[in-house]
């Protein structure tokens, strides 16, 4: 679970995520993600913009800013398509964060 650190309605759209955390989760710039907001039940899709490494930011931009506010807890899902033969060896990357968006060991 990540904590929303900013909500910026005056932007074209997306979610900004700390580039360091993107790298840990293996999320690429402009990759499509689904976000689930635990505080209000919203579930929406957008794309990721890299934020400043080490900033621990999770900023909802543009229309997604209407889907949550600072302090909301969100879960971010990144999906991929793969052949049946690849599925048995697939290991998902799950990144757990503390209340300040620092990765837990």
Structural notes for this entry:
This protein is about 10% helix and about 30% strand. The protein contains 2 helices and 7 strands. It has a 7-stranded mixed sheet. Strand 4 and strand 5 form a beta hairpin. The model has no long low-confidence stretch (mean pLDDT about 95).
Strand content: 25-35%
**How confident overall, as mean pLDDT?**
95
Low-confidence stretches: none
Task: Return Rg in Å.
Answer: 14 Å
Task: Using the coordinates shown, work out and report the CATH topology.
Answer: Barwin-like endoglucanases
The CATH level-2 architecture is identified as: Beta Barrel
Spell out the helices and strands N to C: EEEHEEEEH
Shape: globular
Give a quick precis of the structure.
This protein has 105 residues and is mainly beta. It is built from 2 helices and 7 strands. The protein has helices at residues 19-25, 84-87; strands spanning 2-3, 6-8, 14-18, 32-37, 43-51, 58-61, 73-77.
Keywords:
mainly beta
Chain-wise SSE layout:
Elements: E1 2-3, E2 6-8, E3 14-18, H1 19-25, E4 32-37, E5 43-51, E6 58-61, E7 73-77, H2 84-87
Parallel strand pairs: 2-6, 3-5
Antiparallel strand pairs: 1-7, 3-6, 4-5, 4-7
């Amino acid at each position: 679970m990540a904590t929303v650190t900013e909500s910026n309605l005056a932007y074209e759209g997306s979610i900004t995520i700390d580039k360091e955390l993107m790298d840990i989760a293996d999320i690429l710039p402009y990759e499509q993600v689904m976000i689930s907001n635990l505080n209000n039940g919203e579930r929406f899709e957008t794309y990721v913009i890299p934020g400043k490494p080490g900033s621990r930011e999770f900023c909802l931009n543009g229309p997604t800013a209407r889907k949550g506010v600072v302090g909301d807890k969100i879960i971010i899902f990144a999906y991929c398509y793969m052949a049946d033969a690849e599925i048995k060896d697939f290991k998902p990357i799950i990144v757990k964060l503390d209340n300040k968006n620092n990765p837990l060991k």
